[in-house]
Amino acid sequence: MSFSKYTQLSVPDVLTDFSTAIDTGLTHTVIKKRQLEYGLNTVSGKETTWLHILGRQFRSAFVYLLICASLLSFGLGEALDGFMILLFISINTGLGFYQEYGSEKTLKFLKNYMVLRATVIRNGKEDVIDAKELVPGDVVVLETGDIVSADLRIVQENNLYVDESTLTGESIQIKKIAEGLNVEETEPYRAKNIVFAGTHVAEGKAFGVVIATGKNTQLGEITRLTLETSAQSGFEKQINKFSKFILVMTLGTLVAVFLAHLFIDGNLSNLPTLALFAIALAVGVIPEALPLVTTFSLTHGAKILAKKKVVVKRLSAIEDLGGIDVLCSDKTGTLTQNVLEVASINASFSDEAVFYGLVASDYLGSDKTANNSFDLALLKKIAPPQKDSLTKLKKLFEIPFNPTRKRNSVLIAEGNTKTLVVRGAQESVLPFIKKSKIAEETDFDKKLITWILSEGHKGRRVLAIAKKTVQFEKYTIKDEESDLTLIGLISFEDPIKPTTKEAVKKAEALGVHMKIITGDSAEVSGAVAYSVGIINSPSKVLTGYQFDHMSAREQAKAVKEFDVFARLSPEQKYKIISQLQKDYSVGYLGEGINDAPALKISDVAIVVDDASDVAREAADIVLLEQDLKVIVGGIEEGRKTFANTTKYIKSTLASNFGNFYAVAFASLLIDYLPMLPIQILLVNLLSDFPMIAIATDNVDLEDVARPHSYDIREITLIALLLGMVSTLFDFIVFGLFYKQGAQVLQTNWFIASILTELILIFSIRTKRFFLHPSSMPSKIMVSLTFVAGIVTILLPMTSMGQNIFKFINPGLSNVFFLLGIVIMYIFCSEGVKLYYYKISRSLISTK
Fold it and tell me: What single string gives the DSSP state of each residue in 494-536?
């Protein structure tokens, strides 16, 4: 359905075309008929199917190496080896498919929490529905902060400005009108009376008629191509860089070994067998299960967080969350209860102040509902007779609240008198009060300021209500800014949540520095921050005005020195987050329209579930419970996920490097392969088997006590050090068995390689002595390790192990002998590990 034909139509013609009206909207009968005709207001994007997920498992250099090895085996007439390699491919890809498919299902389930809603007029009543239920002809009510859910033709508006950057790329807000255009416009950016799906209302109110839904919208043509675009986190980028580093180093070593074999042996007839061995060796050292382990860890973390009422929209954000150094938060709804109560009234007549406070709200009669905390608090305070008298008022015009102006106004008719009522933050209203009321009455002026400061020190918000009698029926913002008469000041109290103080202490214990970045007054913000322990003095607050009048150098210093920033505009919040990111990883917890720019730039964007549509759209993580303790718990879970992923990397690299260099160089010393390709692949499979459960492992307190970054140098260093220990013990096994023949060496080396790798994970998982960790290993990891160990010992004793994998029965005496070597190995590895961390801690302490 093209929007262009509706640009030139008048408002009555548009309403007639859709058989609707602004006051009544559509009837249930018409709605049902149109839902059948047009379907749901959703974009049928190309979702990720199980076939796509399965295909992803084969997009890996590791898999390509295995396929080459399998084809080479078939070419050499080793059909059994070829089939076994294919079996290993099937097991690895099968596990990866199972986990990623489960992840997709989990994410789709979590998306059910992210339901966009729309306010509509249906059957003469205002109602809030799921946006997917919209049909052409629906009359939609738009307010500041709403994301437009369908293409709409504006039929009535008041100071409507729309941000169309999602559609046109233009960052400038566009003024929208209701009148028909002189010519039919086909370009979206010229359609001044159309608002498009996916754009958001920056300011004002409007009524619009739905002209297109779902795939027929302008944005539908773009968004239907994909279900979701996911950002690549810093952790993912480091993982990819790390994988490339390992691959290049491994292939370089293999080429050197391959050429050395040719130079020493000089027998080209063994070239295919040698190539197969080299490929298997490469697969053996590369941590090909890393994507699987990472995915499993992230998904496991997402499920745990979901149970804790934290919904992860971007899976990799879990690890980003664990790495934040600074958590910036708007205090509303997260530190406080977000339920305002009238605390005090400074007015000649308290009832009059409450009455006009509601006049300037959206509440004007029994058919309306209060839609914000201030109005709800005032409704609890107003007397029943005054509440009834609101129905006699007629609203002539209004200018809605704007975050920059910090006030709103409404023009009403009280009988034959027209009254302009202004309500807003005291500093945005008091400057426009007639001087005879303030400047010439010094005592009154002093008392007023003293009262405002007193209320602010108590953590209370103050609204000023003023009015003036006028003759006009429409007005501009400038008309608000002169000759007002002060009716009174009302303070509101937002109690602090009982859990906030504990959460702030826990955040500090986790090494996360808390900062409040808010649009509230300096007095309110300082009082709240002081009461919860973020600052040691309620006056240590920096305002947006003060921040803007600083030099760039002073601003960089201020964002570190101050922990509370008040009276900030969206642009100022954005600047502060940008400055902090130069030195820290920053998470931002917000909920309002003015939080959207800061959310977009932050490393981790966090919102509460009832945040504005714009804020939710920019978020990585959504809190289903408005409580700081929830996100602090999420930080801890993110660090656990990070810690468990790095455990796998360190353990598998240390073992694989040791085995890789030992087997590679041992092959130069004997006239047979120290381990067959199929045996190397089996080592890899059995040693990685329990690793998939590492995501469930418990984590030492010291691993979650401070933010961590993915340090390739540190991981590589510890892996190489422990890899040297592994290489040493591999050569011990080699020296003990190589003279007894190929099968004896291969069998015993196979058992020793797997058992040492299985036991190493219990050393790597803690920086303490592995028998006395601060947290015990998870039961599932212990169980899977035990199973893998038993299979490793028993397999060579079976006919399958001897016929398929070319093992021989090692005998119980050899098994116990190897167990002794494994015990010596783990204690030697422990010594190296403990010494490394001791040196590491001493170097850190001297810095």
Answer: -PBPTTHHHHHHHHHHTTPEEEEE-SS-HHHHHHHHHHHTS-S
| Residue 418, token pair as written in the block | 């027209």
3-state secondary structure of 777: coil
Q: What share of the chain is helix, strand, coil (3-state, %, to 5)?
A: 55, 15, 30
* C-alpha–C-alpha distance, residues 834 and 549, integer Å: 52
Give the whole-angstrom CA distance, residue 804 versus residue 81: 8
Residue 524: count of CB within 10 angstroms of its CB: 28
Average pLDDT along the chain: 82
| Sign, Cα dihedral of 704, 706, 707, 712 | negative
Residue type, 648: Y
Integer-rounded Cα Rg, in Å, for the chain is 34
Give the Cα separation of 335 and 589 in Å (integer): 11
**Model's pTM, two decimal places?**
0.64
Alpha helices in 112-152 (DSSP H): none
> Contact 396/412 with Cβ under 8 angstroms?
yes
For residue 230, the model assigns a pLDDT of 43
> Is the distance from CB of 185 to CB of 193 less than 8 angstroms?
no
**3-class state of residue 106 by DSSP:** helix
Write the CB contacts of 185 (distance below 8 Å, at least 6 apart in sequence): 4, 7, 8, 191, 192
Residue 257 pLDDT exceeds 90: no
CA distance 645 to 337: 37
pLDDT at 307: 83
